[in-house]
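Sequence in, structure out. Go.
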Amino acid sequence: MSHKRRLAQAAMVVVGLVLPATGQRKPAPDFRLASAGRGSVQLSRYRGKAVLLNFWATTCGGCKFEIPWFIEFQTRYKSRGFVVIGVSMDDDGWKSVKPYLKEKKINYPIVVGNEDLARLYGGVEALPMTVLIDRHGMIAASYSGVVDKEACETGIRALLR
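Output:
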């Protein structure tokens, strides 16, 4: 069984969110990957926006549970300088991801990640894994498992102030 498949089958864990003080934050590693649409997504292009970076897979139950929340957050906060970026960790890449995007009508940029990107973010040990990045490109919060929707939204609002 592949490493990615084990991640997708990890138990669903709900975690809270704690935002460290701005001075304690570390830079979010930059990346550039092909997107589901035309072109590519480069994280550094989103400086000035608050970013929710979500590592997920089409086979991950917890991911399927929280993606509708992220669609909702993208709709609600986009005009305030917020964006969700999804990083699929599916073993077969776009083959699984493209049909899933059409079916779920995901309204935010999606890229297919790889082990190198996962390592940059400390190793993605379980899916889903979500990282909140402030407007300066600094990691404000990172957590594994299904996010607590209310706590996540509170964190987003704090980053948008």
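Check: Residues 3-11+46-160 form a domain with the Glutaredoxin fold (CATH 3.40.30.10). The first helix runs from residue 3 to 8.
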